[in-house]
Known about the structure:
By secondary structure, the protein is mainly beta. 6% of the residues lie in helices and 44% in strands.
Amino acid sequence: MKGSGNSIPNIKDVYPDSYLVDYYFSGFNKDYKGMDWESLILVLEEHDGGWYIVAIVHSQWTI
């Protein structure tokens, strides 16, 4: 995961054998200097030879 806020990420604790795809947006407003970043994380696991999304996680900058 590229961004991190004040929450402890636990995706790998819950899904230890997963593969993560992180769609990271560094920010939308230049005035905020990156403090408006967001991330959409797809969590995939292999099952019977196929990869399936088992979780969708949203993360963003927090105080």
